[in-house]
Amino acid sequence: MKEPLYLFLLALNNSGSTAFIKFLNTSPNTSMLTSNGEGQWLPPVQKIMRERPWDPTREMPWEFIQAKYLEKWNHNSKILLEKSPPNLLRAKSIQKVFPGVKFIVMNRNRYAQCSSCFFRYHKTQLLWKKSVKGKIKSLLNIADEHNNSKKKIPKGFSEIASEWLFKSEYQKYNLETLNNVMQISYEEFAQDPIATKHKMLEFCPELETLDIPDKLHVKDRVSHIRNFNQEQIEELKKEDLQAISDVLRSRLDLLDYFGYELI
Question: Strand, helix or coil at 57?
Fold first, then answer.
């Protein structure tokens, strides 16, 4: 069986990866395994790939996963796109199994990414999770409770910021150790999609051509490609910004590596 060119987008969740993979899929030579480009939701592998996905000690049976990907792959296309976020923990293992794979490492402003995570996944839970006295628990209490419990508890900004550091450390490792790899940021893509288009075609000429869509449907939003960072950061309160900064301050070197600063 012939194999495609594997093009893996390694991106933190809530970092613009859905918009970016849809942008890549405007090439006439690409196909995706699922509507959002995440192979982890493909039924034959979903149970495997969604078991402790963010546990770096969890090994994945990549030969089996690759076989299922090839069964689903549109054989009329030359390039198979994949962007499951937890893949960024296992890129070296992926490289061993997927021949000729190319990687795109993507990151995003830490405050905007934390805001997006919180308001999409945790805000509603926090509003409704009350203490026995009927008072809404503080974010710090929620975070402390999460660290001392196996239950799924809404995360606070400190924990979300810690996750940004954890995942960004892996992204740094990926950039420094993978064979065929390029770096892109959410900001670079959102602010100058034309330059991003040329950068992508230079890195992966097999794409041949890319279009810049007038509108992209991403989750609950329909918009042209643009930078949402500022409005998402503006949703954060002063104490939220402080909680994020307090965590990030421990790794100023990592922020600098990706071109970011404390607010």
Answer: coil
